[in-house]
Batch of 4 targets.
Target 1
Amino acid sequence: MTIRSSYDGGRTWESFDRGTVVTADWSGYSDLMRADDAHVGLLHEGGAVDARDRSEKVDTARLRDRSGSPGSRSTGCSRGARPIRRRTTGCTARGTRLASRTVHRRERGGRGRRGKGPVLVLVGFLCAAVVAGLLLLPHREGGAACAARTVSSWAVDSRLNAEFVRYGDDASRTDDWTGGDGSHSVRLPDGRVLWLFSDTYLGPVHPAPNPAGQNHSWRDASAPFVRNSAVVMGRSGRLERTVAAPLFPETGVGEWRWPVAARVEPRSPGSAEKVVRVLLWTRTQGSGSWIYGVPTATEVATLSLPGLRLEGITQILDQRQVSDPARRVLFGTTAVTGADGRTYVFGGDDGQRPVHRAYVARVPDGRLADAAAWEYWDGKRWRSGAAPAPVLGDGQRRGVGSAFGVVRQSGTYVLFTTAAGTSGLRNVTSYWACSPAGPWHGPAPALTPPLPRDPVAGPGIAAYNPQAHPELGGDGRLVLSYDVNWLDASPAAAQAQLSRNVSLYRPRFVTVRLGPPG
């Protein structure tokens, strides 16, 4: 028997694998009962052979909690308590007294066999309230109430789409951005928005028709290509200039950096001076299935304000010691400020599976560039220097794409990702949780954002990397971007398509509203 908990007033419940095991023996009908003002109990049928065994056994475990510590969602016990490894599950803790009593009774006409019958577990009120899902409790992070959230409506953001077309097609400069992916943004203290991109095309764009006579803007095959770039958007929402590209230099032959999430934070804890911290994925040139590079390390770059000058790069997590590249984890696909003031940094593993696993780390405010300050969720608790454990993903139906985004709305975390399976590179789905470490509920029904119109493209075009941009929304609207690309096993063939039609390699935008499921 497993007790599954609810943290949103009973609207959703934990999956079986995250529940608390009461007994591994046969069990049948169960019910909750109130023992007194301070205790509730769980009564269920059980037997040595099956739940109908008429020889009954009643175990009572009464817990008197003198510590006054709040409940913990991971075990349903007081913080610092441990589960009781007996036939029944209660809690023990410092300052706690546990008394148990066993009563055996044989029914008239029974089979003369002693079994394990109804089990009554009396536990402290807080413990029982958690496991029974009777109260709406704060999540592991502690603080705001949590409720299920998913996309209730969405619409194309024509204004942002048009702005990136205008800037990308502007041929007045030859050293600016004309297309890229890995789209991330951060609001600067003076109101500007810094946009960060991974692989980027520079140079001029020519108006339609292209050399093939098609109605597409196009670029020369010899157009400059860099591994990262940054574009500044003014306070009016107009893209103004490309920061000297590449902004983050390559580390050596065949190794490069992709920028991902960015945050504005104090230069040091408590400092009034602000800087921009940019998380970087370091990747090394690979072969075969690793045409997009082998994951190598997570780094953090520091940019000055307001000038956006690169001051330095710090390595946070080196993954070269993990022999299997598919098991390496890079952090920074998204970063969220939690209710406790910490920054929660999400990451994912790599490999060629259609669905990946998500991981999470946390960092105190002002210490993103301090590797010693990072703590990783190891499956049970936050630990520095620990091997991270996945918080979402089963490798099949549930999980994330190679890049995904997370936002926090009140006490609820919402994760946006491409859907699992063959439809994943055209559909965006979501999960929600009350804590960055989960449990994550979903996936929700997917939305299918529009792709560029190109009769030649067919199934070769894909949408991926959904990212939320809270600084651009308002009035309950959340701006969501997704990258567009031409997928081809041959990089040269893909580049030819992206140059033939420049719209095939630019971010696109929708606005979404979040609400209760259904």
Note: Helices lie at 125-132, 158-169, 491-500.
Target 2
Amino acid sequence: MEKGQERRREPITIGIMGTGAVGGYFGAMLARAGHRVVFVARPETAQVIVSTGLRLERSDTLEVLMPPRISASSSPQDLRQVDAVLLCVKATATEEAAALMRGVLRPETWVMSLQNGVDNAARAQAVLERPVIPAAVYVACAMPEPGLVRHFGRGDLVIGPPPPMRGQSVAAEAHRQHDAAARRGQDVTAELLDQIAACFSQAAIPVVVSPQVAEALWSKLLVNCAYNAISALAQVDYGTLAAQAGIRSTMDAIVQEVLDLSHASGLVLDRNAALGQCAAIAAAMPRQLSSTAQDLARGRTSEIDHLNGFVVREALRLGVATPVNQTLYALVKLLEFRGKPQETPQLPRDFHDWLRELGLATETSPAASALTGGVSSEIWSVELSSGKHVVKRALPRLKVSQSWEVPIERSRHEAAWMHFAAQADPASVPQCVASDDRRGMLLMRYLPPSRFRLWKSMLRDGEAIPAQAHAVGTRLARIHAASANPAVAVELRARFDHTPLFHAIRLEPYLEATAQRHPALSDALHALSRTTAHTRHALVHGDISPKNILIGPDGPVFLDAECAWWGDPAFDLAFCLKHLLLKRLWVPAHQALHRASFGALVDGYREGIAANGSWEPWEALEARAAALLPALTLARVDGKSPVEYLTRAACRQRVRDLTREAILAPHRKLEDVHRHWIFHPGVDPCT
């Protein structure tokens, strides 16, 4: 024990990624205790620290920490030799900061997230591909000017084990991205957590190591939701808020909504303890303005998306009512919008660098606009000299509530699928101009919405016609049949033979994650997953759905083939058909259209493989699709990627009622699945 204590007393080198108020305070306290601290900050802040030091103002004392005791720069490359990193950027910049550190840190360097919100550690480690220690932070401080940290109260942490690396084990097995020795060097053990606590305690930073750190993070979220938005809207401190009876009642309502959400998420927090914690914050930090209030006062984007905004999104997913949080969130977003100059969007530097390497952009960043609509990629439209294009980068962690991490190498498979589909049916895909496997980027020709309309929107608005669904089925069958041609099948199978990756991004999050929610269906769902994984007939797109289909002058155009895999074509057929079932609940007024489109798509696909050469009897393929269809439909309610438009709990329950029987006793014909969905007894709560 004495040896361990001696090791903990040795100075270490600590990097601070994001030197705002929180990063500046904890970095300064650690530097005071004799540790070497490397601050990574905005250029103006780094320059001040280098030239005049970091000033720490506490109570009535002012201390100045100077190089070489500390160092500062704006380059994450300076973190190469640190023993530890404290991630202190705003929650809105978590992935960006992690991406800048990826490949820089040594294998044995440990990383800790000191950020607002409950999911930053999981988001950061998805990018870094190493564990990130979560910390609930309790400190009142501000950085009124670069290089000056003003401390008002507290300064303690609760830390605990990292969240599970859910997608990492599959990715590591499939792609061998890190050797075993490096992964062992990143392990976060109970001994390491105790050493960190001792290191911080010797720097006058109280630390509690707790296996219930998730509860601590939710408790901190609860306090932030209660104070931050109201403090920002009124621009008043915590003490003033707590002194107003009407505001206290509003804060109590916020607390209750977050408690309801935490319970629905599986965490049981005590209401009296939560209210007491809120009261204690005002007593301990009466002069403190919330970080959201400080951001709005400076015209900056706040972290409200990861505070009350997180509550609103999670509540929508889980069917919990949060009207007070939703109102405050909307008001803060309105102030952010009103107070921010409407600048021309700037293409991220790494996108611009790639376009310059391709010779398609100059030193000046091209005009660009961020595009929305997907959970798996960052997408921009860019104006180049050769015309308008779309540049797309695969994200390592999908933008969904549950942890869903996937390798960015899938962009390589998407580019390869697009090249093959263009050979099989040139009008079926956008033109892929370039791709970069290392960056996970694709460059494609832009398809203007005036000529290419999103099929999902047309189905929603009642503007689609069954002939479009028939064309989707025919075109999909044509690509499947072309890939199954013996002249190309062997080469395609070798290129797309990555079942572990398809399992990680499709079978596990859809079928197996749903099995966890439905133990009675577990055996059937796992059997479907195994059957799909072992059925290998053709090149599968993996994400054929109305949101990834444009209807153009020459028929449907398929987008987003990140899940491309040599496997079971029945998966593509069932994956698309499930959306036509769900659209009936989403927009009941157009259910006759969706019913006709379902049959037309099946007919188009069957006719397409008959015309282009079938690799197996239609009856066998249809039986697998009919078995998959109800399971994939249920997965859009209880899997890792629930549809965003079924907001009513009664509608989600209706999906469960309509799919359970068909999962346990599968139909062999798609028409029978459809008939069961339409004519199943019971009152439809969505009509």
Note: The longest helix spans residues 213-234.
Target 3
Amino acid sequence: MAAAAPVPSPIPSARPGSTPARKKRRSIAALRSVWLKWRTHSLGLADQAVVSGVSFVTTVLVSHWTSPRELGLYAIGISMLISIVSIQDSLIALPYTIQRHLPRGTPTEHAGGSLVQSGLLSALGFIVPLATALVLSACAAAPELVAMTWALAIVTPFALLRDFGRRYSFAHLQMARALTLDIAVAAIQLIALCWLGWTGRMSPASAYLAIGVACALTGGVWLYHARGNFVVRSDRLTAAIAHGWDLGKWLFAIQITVCVQASIPYWLLAFGAGPTAAGVYAACMSIVLFANPLIIGIGNTLAPKAALALSEGGHTRLRREATQDLLLLGAGMMLFCLAILFFGDDLMSLLYSNEEYADHAPTLFVLALAMLASALGMPATNALLAIERPQVLLGASSVGAGVTVVLVWYLMIEGGLLGAAYGFMTGSVTGALGRWIAFLILVPRHGPPSDPEAEPEIRSPRQRDALMQRQARPPASLRPTAGHDASAYIAADCNDVHELDFRATEAERPSAHDL
């Protein structure tokens, strides 16, 4: 009798809803991973969008409720305020961002020294407009100009405080805090400006006061909540200012060359081709500058990330960070250039109805390529700043500015407005190439910094703590005897980078006696 065929056991079915729930968890995990990876850049873009948008809306509101003459006075004062803020960024904020990882005092002492420097600059920013207002009053200048100068004297310290809080948040990669600060400033500023306009009190001076009130309220609240992050050591303040000045003076000089390179085409076009050509160039550049929120928003995160990469991973991680930033900026700006290529002329016609502004699509695209070149040079710029080589950056920026001046003048004669755009693009490409060549030479793939006088390369926070403890208390074999300087022994102890790395590593692991 044949045996009965075995009945296959039923396959256990999955619990109802288990597969969709698992897929949902995976989707949430994937989204969380993507958000964590792009969170810093996304918040940086949002912050810059808020700042740029508020600046644009403020100009529109002032123009709506004042005359063109008053709008011109407002624009002059705002340009002065922006210049003072840029000085703080070059001399104080950016040096703090780059140098805050160095083992020279505690983090709170670093921050306290920078805050004191910002306060000194604020005092200077108050005294200079105040003296100017007194001189204008004595000379019987126009009342609107005198009132604007008085308002600038009041507003400048609060604007510098707000900018310092913003840059401090950027240095610590606290992008959400910077975004919160700027949203609060935007809300208070726009509410105050609308109230001034609706009540008929709008003027350049009152607009500045609205900006000052917004900066004072938000900056004061930020400083109160962050007061525990600042410690002022009067005995180390002079050294901190001198150390920041060593880097800040070069950054300030670099900023001057960049401003010259950006503004020289306007002057050369106005002189050689007439004011109309300069106006059309300004209109084209205003379209291309729509990329600024992308460039500045991401750029606000690149410098602190480069300094952190050098502190934690040395040159190897710094090169990897610069490469990733290059790919990120390149992808974003390539999309922007394509948008300008296909839609730039239509946008130009939409915003500028005069026939003089029509048919400039090639000029728009060339200027967009110039912005692409400038953006691609930013990762190399931040890497060179992280290793504190601003002299090289100044050389590259000076060469780029020189090429811009020569080629804009020569090509403008040959090709008019489009030739001037080609000259500006060539200068931008030259400056970016110079930065990357210097980066490849000065930042090797492996090994210590190429400067023998540079700080030793610290690869982890534990090694940094070990180094600070060793500097505070040298070993018995290296402690100075009578008549010797202790700093000389500390410097000798830190002279050999390879030996320092080995000993810092040994300080982290247990010895054979401990085992």
Note: The two ends are 74 Å apart (CA to CA).
Target 4
Amino acid sequence: MIGNFVANEQIVEIILKEVEKLFKNKGSIIAVSGATGFGKSLMISELIQHFAESDKFIVTFAEGHSPVGNMNIGNLQPLYIFQQVLDNLIKDSANISTKKKQLAIQIGLNALSAVPILGEALYFYKETKRDIEKYATGGKFNQQSQETLKKITEYTKKKPLVILIDDMHFADAESVKALDEYFLKITQHLPILIIFTYKQEFLDTNIGPMHSFIKNSAINNSIIDIELAYIKLKDVYTLAKIHFKNYIKNDEFEEWIFEHSYGNPGICSEYLRYFSENSPFDINGNLITNFKGNEFLPASVQQVFSQHIANLNEEDKNILSICSAEGIEFSAALVSRLLNMDILTTIKRLRSIQQKTGFIKSLGASNTYYGIKTTKYKFTQTFYHSFFKDLLEFEENASIHGQIKHFLKEIFDNSKSEDLKEQLAPYIAAHSSASGDSQTTNEMLLITAEAARKAGNDELIKSVFSGITDLQNTEIQELDDTSKNFIEKLKNSLNSDEKSESKDGNGISADTLLDNSIVDFQMIRKVIVNEFNNGNIDIALDKAEKYYVEQKSNLTSIQIAQLDCLIAKCLMSNDQIDKAVNFLNEAESYINETPDLFTSFIVFNSLAQLKFLQNSISSADNYLGKAVKTAMYLPQELKLMALANLSILTKKQNFSKAEQFKSAVQKLSKDLKFKKFQKEFEQIYANT
């Protein structure tokens, strides 16, 4: 028997049947729906315990991100669900340092390996396993989701994999798309069982990707969709035996519980829990006289809960209310800050409340929560979270969200990691919105949108724009120049996406890419880069030039500029310097017309290499200087590349200046834990 599935024993039979398929290299997806209180989270917990106790499976867990304030933050975190899956697999499989763990969970699509740099440093991105593709203008998350599945699939080489996901109704659009993409591969040849829970009522009121996925799955009969059942009268007896030691069957008591719970398992358990603490039975196990007519019996589950609340003092109620403002999940570090209490005292208070009430539970330490290591907690029921959240007056709620915003903004401002800033931006936006700070809300949403624009994630851009207050009207005048530029870029990105929607290629193999007029730019770019990295310069050049001729009229100016750089890189590798000049001149003209940080970085690096090959060292130094300045607004890895190129190119002309750049490279390499890159860089530098 798997866990305690009262009234839902058929789920166990279905799961066991699907488990057997895993040993035949065939997986499946099981969706379990149920209203609040029907035991979805309990079911996931029971399954985690069951599979973890067996040595036949690898089991991992993820959950949808519940709203923060009034903002559905899950929509702002692409592939959040499956990044959690991958992160947890890595954490469970190896005891590695936090930094290495952060590197390991990245996808490593290597799209930027075409950035012209010197010597063997070209392979820098491959070796560091960084997910640079997400920064690429026009990038497609379809590629990232496929790479994610590839990483997850590696674990099935050891044992069948069971993935358990709670609250899938909160999932972002990219996680839902990934689930859809994975289905065919899983059912055909991968020993992966995915079981996820969702609330149908949430999907009905929040029409989106998950709603469509469930609807289409029902039409196509593609996944196993189960609805948790209401309990029956006979099930109350089973539950009563769990809550009462030596329980003697009592029809009158069970009928009362059944009538007042309306068949909802969660409400039934709340009542039984109440009576286990306030027993209606005498020492012989008999029900007290006139039980049903007793005026002191709670008439509703709210009254039952109020009885539990009575066991808390005002300070504990206040602590839980403050915790609820952060969300269903909350962190010891943040609660400690809000309470102005040291962290150890805070954890002791939370542990006391947990043991006394069961309203919250510890999820253990997390290395990735807001970029700091802290203990995470969670309200055990949505009802508990809502209750304490509603205790806050409007002014209290706004003030607490404001404090949370300031706490997270401090981490944001002090961080040098662009990844962490992008991770924090949605949280800061949500808490800023709840506190009434629309300016910070918009600033953080713009950062999220800019990251989405670089990744080519139009769905996320649209989600972000829906949360920006009157951005198209008067408030835009109050934003700084950087934010205004972001807005213009985002508008252009959306317009260009709409223009090129019909060109996206799906399921096209690398061998037939150039024969299809709807080929996706990102896919062909990856093909060209792979050929170049494998030393097939002529093949890479042929494909790039052919694509340039056939598709140039259908490409955006930014895509043309990137393609120009790819062609120029190939030409320079073949010593065809004069031909490379024309392409790079065109690329430079395009970035002057349509500024784009990432593409500008590529173009400046390409021009620097060109000038270096032409022995125009001062011009090369000038372009590399521009590349470095541009990289200041891009991920640390790109800054590192620009500094490395700059130090190598300036060594012979200005040794002391080159040494300063070299020191900067060594320091940044050390901070990023890129030992292999640092070693190769030092070898190239020494031989220059």
Note: Confidence is low (pLDDT under 50) at residues 94-141, 469-478, 497-519.
